[in-house]
Inverse folding.
């Protein structure tokens, strides 16, 4: 059967793409939530993502905590770091700057400042090399499928968690009282404030959820790869830009679809195509989608924010 | 004689720093001229890359005279910048920013893969040093003069109108599209100049030179310095080139201090650091000329209410 190894190889690539897409989904959901509701393009999102992986590494390497408590503490830490930026910078910018465009600019620069600080903390504490939690905290088991293909339990966990998080976030924003407040603030912060929505609380809780989602992605990636470094955060950030643009800013379902689409495209290019063009896919998609359909491929209604 | 000697030795010690500041000033001008016109474009960094390859390769491979190569690079980028502005005409704000970031990074990816032209991952090396610091200094002066002129008179006020309220500007028969294209093209040309000089002064180009870090640096310079005026961009270029060098002396946490300064300035000084200089200057002149028009609505409010009472 000469076709079997090739089929197994393809299946393996597909599994890799789906796992990669799941991490991307978790990463992009938080970024999309913050931009869609609060008009914050948080450039510290990639740094927070790595920061959570670092926290798990720090908490587990001496065997202080096991996997689940470390995951929870790291997610809270990532959420807290994002909330710190909201409380120290974004909140003031939002209330003091009348001009929306200038507010966007200042938030961008403030979040770059935040990213620099977080990156510095992580690289100083890790000696600026790759780091990862010990293999003992999560017993990796591989299940063999057809041919050479296999899937590990951590990979299955990543996919399941990503799907659950996406469905949960979608339902939270659509159905819950808090989610309705988030959508109201996204539509019109001043009026929703007048109608009794606690805007600053909504902003803080939204940023916390966004940061915690980045943290979840960061910890799962750290446990899966067991080798992370500061520079990885930026790669994810740039790919996430493409996910937001392709999926439509603020759209949970769009972000999920776009994340898997881009993951499959990038994996296919690395496996079969001109490998060096991999990064180009995301940038080309951003340009093409913005030219042809600025509201995103999967957004139903045109949602003009400009 | 002593002073001249000490100045020249100071210059010799800091020549590279000064050259970097001058080149970054051109790049910062490129971003500032767009932002001031209400165009959130970071395409200047992509044209920095294209300009550096164009000028560097023309001098190295085709043995063109420096001036001609620089002019060709700048004109090429003016044309490409105009084409890009036409393509991106519908986009505003963060969407335009992301589209131009994608353009910049795409230029890098193309440069990395177009090995026959750019040398790919090895880069373009061995470009003859063909500009002097003085040439660049004069160019920066010229660019500053041009930007100063663009901030004044009819064109300056029209650009402000286009930035503040496009609809209103259009209703006053301002050709908004034309003005946005003008700002975009000038931004592209300034970016190309910065890149061309960098290639011709530092002799090599890497495909990763104009990456996300350079975009972030250029944006930071302009916002920290103040994007309302070319003086802010210049101040930002000076400070953000010089401060990191000073901060390295305080040890391994210098980056964190730098990040904290960025947060503080972006959050609490909306007009950028140059606005502090302006305020200090006004205070020292003892508010000799209180100009209602200049001070804007917020500052003009108290006198208006007192006269009404």
């Amino acid at each position: 059967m000469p076709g079997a190894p090739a089929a197994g190889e393809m299946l393996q690539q597909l599994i890799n793409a789906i796992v990669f897409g799941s991490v991307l989904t978790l990463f992009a959901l938080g970024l999309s939530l913050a931009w869609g509701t609060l008009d914050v393009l948080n450039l510290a999102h990639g740094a927070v993502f790595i920061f959570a992986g670092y926290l798990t590494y720090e908490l587990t390497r001496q065997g202080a905590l096991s996997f689940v408590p470390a995951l929870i503490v790291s997610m809270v830490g990532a959420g807290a770091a994002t909330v710190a930026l909201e409380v120290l910078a974004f909140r003031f910018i939002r209330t003091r700057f009348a001009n929306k465009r200038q507010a966007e600019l200042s938030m961008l620069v403030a979040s770059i400042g935040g990213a620099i600080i977080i990156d510095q903390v992580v690289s100083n504490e890790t000696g600026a090399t790759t780091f990862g939690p010990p293999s003992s905290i999560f017993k990796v088991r591989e299940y063999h499928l057809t041919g050479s293909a296999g899937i590990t339990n951590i990979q299955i966990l990543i996919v399941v968690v990503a799907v659950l998080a996406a469905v949960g976030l979608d339902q939270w924003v659509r159905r819950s009282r808090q989610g309705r407040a988030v959508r109201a603030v996204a539509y019109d912060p001043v009026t929703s404030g007048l109608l009794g929505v606690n805007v600053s609380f909504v902003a803080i809780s939204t940023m916390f959820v966004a940061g915690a989602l980045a943290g979840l992605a960061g910890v799962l990636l750290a446990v899966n790869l067991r080798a992370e470094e500061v520079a990885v955060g930026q790669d994810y950030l740039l790919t996430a830009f493409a996910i937001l643009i392709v999926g439509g800013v603020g759209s949970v379902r769009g972000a999920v679809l776009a994340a898997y689409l881009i993951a499959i495209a990038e994996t296919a290019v690395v496996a079969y195509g001109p490998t060096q063009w991999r990064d180009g896919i995301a940038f080309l998609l951003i340009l093409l989608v913005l030219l042809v359909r600025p509201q995103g491929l999967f957004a139903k209604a045109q949602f003009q924010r400009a | 004689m002593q002073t001249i000697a000490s100045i020249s030795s100071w210059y010799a010690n800091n020549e590279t720093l000064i050259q970097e500041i001058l080149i970054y000033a051109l790049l910062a001008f490129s971003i500032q001229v767009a932002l001031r016109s209400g165009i959130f474009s970071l395409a200047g960094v992509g044209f920095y890359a294209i300009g550096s390859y164009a000028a560097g390769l023309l001098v190295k491979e085709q043995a063109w005279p420096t001036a001609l190569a620089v002019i060709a690079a700048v004109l090429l980028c003016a044309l490409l910048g105009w084409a890009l502005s036409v393509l991106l005409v519908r986009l505003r704000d963060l969407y335009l920013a992301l589209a131009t970031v994608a353009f910049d990074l795409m230029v890098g990816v193309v440069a990395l893969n177009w090995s026959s032209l750019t040398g790919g991952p090895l880069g373009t090396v061995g470009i003859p040093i063909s500009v002097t610091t003085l040439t660049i200094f004069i160019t920066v002066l010229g660019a500053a003069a041009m930007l100063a002129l663009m901030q004044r008179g009819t064109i300056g006020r029209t650009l402000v109108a286009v930035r503040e309220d496009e609809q209103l500007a259009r209703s006053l028969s301002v050709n908004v599209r034309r003005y946005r294209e003008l700002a975009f093209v000038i931004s592209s040309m300034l970016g190309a100049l910065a890149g061309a000089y960098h290639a011709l002064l530092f002799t090599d180009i890497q495909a990763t030179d104009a990456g996300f870090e350079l975009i972030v640096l250029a944006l930071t310079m302009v916002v920290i310095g103040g994007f309302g005026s070319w003086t802010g961009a210049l101040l930002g270029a000076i400070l953000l080139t010089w401060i990191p060098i000073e901060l390295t002396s305080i040890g391994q946490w210098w980056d964190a201090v730098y990040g904290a300064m960025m947060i503080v300035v972006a959050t609490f000084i909306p007009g950028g650091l140059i606005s502090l200089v302006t305020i200090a200057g006004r205070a020292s002149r003892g508010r000799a000329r209180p100009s209602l028009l200049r001070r804007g609505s917020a500052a003009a409010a108290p006198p208006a209410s007192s006269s009404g009472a």
